[in-house]
Recover the amino acids of this structure.
C-alpha cells in the first residue's frame, strides 16, 4: 500500500501547521507510512501582464502550462513545460495578435491527445460588439515547436459569443470540444453583435488531424451564459458538466454523457434549485478515474455560497458532499484524481478580505482527509493537473505594483 493509500484508509490524522504563501506542508503525527502531502512554490517567470493560466499533463513531456500575456493592445498565448520535479524545460508562444478577446473567466486550455498531438485555442473578436468572438483552435504535432493554421470549430459565422471551451481526447488524433454558443442570439442582435437576447446553448464537435468538425451536436438549447464548462474522459465514457438554465431561471449543474451511441440528453447532476436572474460566472469541475467521476460545483441555492462534490459512475451521481459553505467562499473550483485512490479539489475563498487558494484532499469515497490554504492572494480561476502522486496548481498572482504574474505550486506525497 502506498503512502497515499494508507491515508485514504484512515491511518492518517492531520496536524495543525503554520500557513505560508511560499510553502505549505500537510504533516502527520500518525505513522511514517502516512507522511502526508508537501506543497511548495515553484519559480516561474512571466511579464507583469500575465494571467488566465491553465495546466494539463503530457505523459511524454511533463506538465504543460498555458497563459495569456498582454503587450499593449496585443495579446499572446504562451506555454511552458515543467517536469515532475518542478523544473522548466522549455517554453514558447502559440500565437499572438491584436484582435483577441481576453477575459479573466473565459480563457484557453490545452489538450494532449492519444497520439501525442497538442490542441489549444484562443478567442478572436469578430465584430465590434463586446461579446462577439469566435473560438480558433490550433494543433501542434511536435510538442509546441510548430502550430497549424487556426481553425474555427463552430460554423455558424454569427457575430455572437462562442467560448467557455472544454476539451478532452477522443481517441487517436481526435479531440472532443464543448463550448457555450450564442448563435441563437443572432436573430435579435445587430451587425456588430450588440443587443441580442441572452440565449446561450451548449454545443460539441470532434476534430481530427484533417481539421474537419465531426460528430457535431447541440447538447442543450438553453444554458447559463458565462459559467465555465468541464469535461473528463473515463474508461468507458466521457462526461461533460456545465451550468444549465431553465425558463424559471434555475441555474443548477447538468451532465451529458458521450459514448459509442453519441451524447445523452442532459440530466441534473443534483437538484439544488438555485434561482438566479443572471450568470454567476462560476462553473463546475470534473475528474475521472476508470469508471468513476468526481464532480465539484458552487451553488448559492441556500443563500450563502456552498461548494459541493459528488461521486458517480456515468451520468448518475451520488448524494452531494458538503465541502464548504459561507459568505467567505467564492467557488472557482477545479478537481483531479490524485494517486491511486484520492481526489484533489481546489477552490477560492476570502480570508480577512484577501482571496486565497485552498486545497482539499478526499479519499476514494469522498471523505475529507485534509485541507490547507496554500497561496494568498490569488486571482482568477486556479487550475490543477496530476501526474501520479504529483500535482501542479497554477493561478493568477496579483503584483503589488499592479498587473499580475503566474503562480505555480507543486503538490506531492511526502517521502
Amino acid at each position: 500500500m502506498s503512502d497515499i493509500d494508507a491515508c485514504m484508509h484512515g491511518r492518517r490524522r492531520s496536524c495543525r501547521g503554520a500557513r505560508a504563501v511560499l510553502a505549505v506542508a500537510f504533516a502527520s503525527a500518525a505513522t511514517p507510512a502516512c507522511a502526508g502531502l508537501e506543497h511548495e512554490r515553484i519559480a516561474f517567470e512571466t511579464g507583469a501582464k500575465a494571467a488566465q493560466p491553465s495546466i494539463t499533463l503530457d505523459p511524454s513531456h511533463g506538465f504543460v502550462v498555458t497563459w495569456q500575456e498582454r503587450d499593449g493592445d496585443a495579446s499572446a498565448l504562451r506555454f511552458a513545460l515543467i517536469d515532475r520535479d518542478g523544473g522548466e524545460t522549455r517554453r514558447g508562444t502559440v500565437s499572438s495578435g491584436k484582435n483577441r478577446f481576453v477575459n479573466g473567466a473565459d480563457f484557453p486550455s490545452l489538450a494532449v491527445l492519444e497520439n501525442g498531438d497538442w490542441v489549444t485555442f484562443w478567442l478572436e473578436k469578430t465584430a465590434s460588439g463586446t461579446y462577439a468572438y469566435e473560438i480558433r483552435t490550433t494543433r501542434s504535432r511536435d510538442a509546441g515547436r510548430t502550430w497549424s493554421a487556426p481553425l474555427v470549430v463552430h460554423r455558424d459565422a454569427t457575430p455572437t459569443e462562442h467560448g467557455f471551451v472544454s476539451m478532452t481526447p477522443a481517441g487517436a488524433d481526435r479531440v472532443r470540444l464543448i463550448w457555450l454558443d450564442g448563435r441563437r442570439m443572432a436573430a435579435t442582435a445587430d451587425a456588430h453583435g450588440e443587443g441580442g437576447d441572452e440565449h446561450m446553448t451548449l454545443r460539441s464537435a470532434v476534430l481530427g488531424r484533417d481539421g474537419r468538425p465531426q460528430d457535431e451536436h447541440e447538447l442543450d438549447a438553453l444554458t447559463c451564459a458565462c459559467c465555465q464548462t468541464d469535461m473528463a474522459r473515463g474508461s468507458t465514457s466521457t462526461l461533460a458538466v456545465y451550468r444549465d438554465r431553465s425558463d424559471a431561471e434555475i441555474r443548477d449543474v447538468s451532465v451529458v454523457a458521450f459514448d459509442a451511441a453519441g451524447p445523452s440528453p442532459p440530466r441534473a447532476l443534483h437538484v439544488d434549485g438555485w434561482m438566479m436572474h443572471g450568470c454567476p460566472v462560476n462553473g463546475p469541475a470534473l475528474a475521472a478515474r476508470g469508471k468513476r467521476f468526481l464532480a465539484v460545483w458552487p451553488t448559492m441555492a441556500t443563500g450563502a455560497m456552498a461548494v459541493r462534490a459528488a461521486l458517480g459512475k456515468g451520468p448518475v451521481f451520488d448524494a452531494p458532499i458538503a465541502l464548504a459553505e459561507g459568505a467567505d467562499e467564492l467557488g472557482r473550483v477545479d478537481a483531479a484524481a490524485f494517486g491511486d485512490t484520492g481526489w484533489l479539489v481546489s477552490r477560492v475563498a476570502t480570508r480577512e478580505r484577501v482571496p486565497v487558494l485552498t486545497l482539499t484532499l478526499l479519499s476514494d469515497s469522498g471523505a475529507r482527509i485534509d485541507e490547507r490554504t496554500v497561496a494568498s492572494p490569488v486571482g482568477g480561476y486556479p487550475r490543477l493537473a496530476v501526474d501520479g502522486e504529483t500535482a501542479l496548481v497554477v493561478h493568477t498572482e496579483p503584483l503589488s505594483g499592479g498587473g499580475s504574474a503566474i503562480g505555480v505550486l507543486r503538490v506531492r506525497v511526502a517521502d
